[in-house]
Amino acid sequence: xxxxxxxxxxxxxxxxxxxxxxxxxxxxxxxxxxxxxxxxxxxxxxxxxxxxxxxxxxxxxxxxxxxxxxxxxxxxxxxxxxxxxxxxxxxxxxxxxxxxxxxxxxxxxxxxxxxxxxxxxxxxxxxxxxxxxxxxxxxxxxxxxxxxxxxxxxxxxxxxxxxxxxxxxxxxxxxxxxxxxxxxxxxxxxxxxxxxxxxxxxxxxxxxxxxxxxxx
Length: 216
Description:
Strand order of the largest sheet: 3-2-1-4-5-8-12-10
Number of helices: 5
Distance between the termini: 28 Å
Radius of gyration: 16 Å
Largest sheet: 8 strands, mixed
Oligomer: single chain
């Protein structure tokens, strides 16, 4: 497929890029610093800053592609305006995808909005790390907005509570809105297997206009 990956130089973005290229997809990678991207025959690098700018400018980069994968972390976790910039960035991406006529949007979501009990989300539990709170709240807001979206065919993939460097096993469980835990009460997934699940969804859509999650 011919896809756009926004945030290709980030922690998750790099794993998604590698997985997509290894499966033979053609990727237009959008990043603030495209020079940091590896050379690859299937890769086209484009410089752009996504964070609430003009959707029309971004639409020009998206036009002609079959799907957009968005792995947006505007300015990093230490950005004091991360929450507002993230919400604005995804609004820009959604508007640009519509203008460009790209039908599918896959979003690298967060775990904070997953349910841990009826009416209780992980983000609202005592001990949720303060350094991730702003970004988690922003992604919860993005998910709420997407659930009201009627034009794009979107999917939102929330990782396990702990998204860690590891191995590509291809073996994991999928779920819906509930946090998945193992027999020891742990919730883990490698960033490599997260990328596997996301590209699986790209190739064989099974969660149209839904959020889903994964864990070991």
